[in-house]
Design a protein that fits this description.
By secondary structure, the protein is α/β, with parallel strands linked by helices. The protein has a single domain, classed as 3-Layer(aba) Sandwich (Rossmann fold). It is built from 8 helices and 11 strands. Helix 4 runs parallel beside helix 5. The radius of gyration is 18 Å and the shape is globular. InterPro entries: Methyltransf_16, SAM-dependent_MTases_sf. GO terms for molecular function: protein-L-histidine N-tele-methyltransferase activity. This is protein-histidine N-methyltransferase.
Length: 299
Amino acid sequence: MGPIAELGQEMLRGLVADGDWNKGTSLVVEMGQGRRTDPCGLGVQWVSVSPSVKCCCEPVSIGGLTLLKGRVSTQEVFALANLDLVPGKYEGGLKLWEGSQDLITALSSEMLDGQLSFTGKRVLELGCGHGLPGIFACLKGAASVHFQDFNAEVLQYLTIPNVIANIEKNDQCLATDDNCETRIFSGDWGEVDHLLSCVFSNENEVQLDQTAGYDVILMAETVYSISALPNLYKLIKKCLRNPHGIVYMAAKKYYFGVGGGSRRFLSIVEKDGALASSLVAEVTDGSSNVREVWKLHLK
């Protein structure tokens, strides 16, 4: 068992029971300067994690940082072959997608250019999987980082160990002495807004309340499914802080075979007219799919 699994062994002992977490719930893991708050007491039942699930740790250098990421088999967690996606059952969160690395690189560049600061900010990562962009924000001084993924199993076996390992590894190098409150949410984009702590109940509240909402929303490789795009966009509008909230989206220009892509999502954004968008980065190699990072904000 690798360092990630060892660091989180006690905290990870059964965050899900009887499938309840798949219906939506939240978990608090407060990290910072060596302090850890045990997340018991939130109504989450604790059971034993299958000893057959192994989490191996490996370093990855992105955006000027060396982050730790876990590696878990889809066969062990979901009893599936190592597939990228099984709609409605497994949404690919155990794989570290290129977009996550593109996003962190773009965020680092934005910070160097003075276009972005995470210090004291409330951050939400949607469809987090490994959660590395959210972890990057935490290490760069965010006041709180909330991680959301469709699959509770991904959060249990991968996201939480990654958060624990990276915060403890970088504990002496954090951008601030204040604790970064970390929350973990499982659920579908059409329903998870009822769990998130920084959302508006309707669009009128977005215009009136300038204290709620997330300062920065991060998402990588979330726009591949055409059918999920409307709910994703509605969730973003409910979550984004008025008037200065920012969304950073990393995605492939087109996802061949499934129909989604950055441009398909942006067409929904443009049609609605509430958000403005600008291209931050484009990654091309002349042979594979074009990848992009976009920034969106309220008009």
